[in-house]
Amino acid sequence: MEELKSLAKVSISVIAALIYCYFFVSRISPGKTRLLFLLPIFYLFALLPWSFSSIHFRGIAAFFLTWLGIFKLLLYAFGQGPLASPNASFPSFASIASLPVKYKQRKKGSPRADLKIKNPPRLSLPVKVLFLAAIVYCYKYKSRFPHEVLLSVYCLHLYLSLELVLAAGAAAARAGVGLELEPQSDEPYLSTSLQDFWGRRWNLMVTGILRPTVYDPIRRWAGSTRRARLLGIIAVFLVSGLMHEVMFYYLTTEAETRWEVTWFFVLHGFCTAAEVAAKEALAGKIPPPPPAVSRAATLVFVAVTGFWLFFPPIIRSRADVKVVDECVAFLEFFTDTWQNLVARIRLF
């Protein structure tokens, strides 16, 4: 009940802040002055996640507001990004600013969105929900899992949870505004390379916000050479690592860090840059590996480096235990509610 009260307070605060941005700040010319008037909203969006005691609510609020929301408003300060459309209604502006969504703008000559493209079989959302429920149920026996198996389960849990959170955000945006949305992810387990995984499949909302805020400015500053492109890739991963450190602070509430998460993303940045350079150098000289091999190699690399650098801060802080406890409690609540509902129906 307390979390629902906090959710109501946070929602009202966000709506009030975005009314200020839409009706007042929009009248200020893009630039440093508009940025100055947005600074209080940056502070508010960084503060609001602490309204929640639940690690799930706090983490989601931090992702939606402190990361994506502030970065979108930062672009908006200079007349760029998804919030800069002059014809956007307030509901559209508010949903884009506060949810992990981007509205689709079809360009002339672009392929139709409803054309069918041949792809390997994909998991539907209901199947992902069932998989996540099965994982949460298995947590009752997690003390019997070998460490590597438990970390593998955490990888699946992270992926499925993010998919459902993004889907919920998209559903809220569609219900509120009803516009067509850009895809938020594209089945990352089908990735054939690190570039494919990070750039085209995993959490595309983050990719879409880091490109205009980090990659494009680096390219404008460093030029259009291959070296500038690789520098832009590494810079994007560095900023992503630093923002993940911030997200982990919200999750673990521990200020001390060994910078493992940052090193995880820096490592992937250098490896992705090396992969891009190798592809360009060897294009047409050696055939690419079979998709089954490249997919397995990509997922193994992501998982192993995640075991090494990504998950240790979560495990040391016991944030994983809190996540599991909250998930098990929610599953038990849902199961009990369903059983009571069925029992009442039988009485009638």
UniProtKB/TrEMBL annotation:
Location in or out of the cell: Membrane
Residue ranges of domain Wax synthase in the record: 182-266
Functional pathway: Secondary metabolite biosynthesis
Main location (coarse class): membrane
One GO location term (cellular component): membrane
GO BP terms, alphabetized: lipid metabolic process
Keyword annotations of the record: Acyltransferase, Membrane, Transferase, Transmembrane, Transmembrane helix
Molecular function terms from GO: O-acyltransferase activity
Membrane topology according to the record: Multi-pass membrane protein
Residue ranges crossing the lipid bilayer per the database entry: 7-29, 35-52, 59-78, 151-173, 230-251, 292-311
Matches recorded under InterPro entries: Wax_synthase, Wax_synthase_dom, Wax_synthase_Magnoliopsida
Source species, domain of life: Eukaryota
A matching Pfam family: MBOAT_2
Family, as annotated: Belongs to the wax synthase family.
Protein's UniProt name: Wax synthase domain-containing protein
Organism: Aristolochia fimbriata
Source taxonomy: Eukaryota, Viridiplantae, Streptophyta, Embryophyta, Tracheophyta
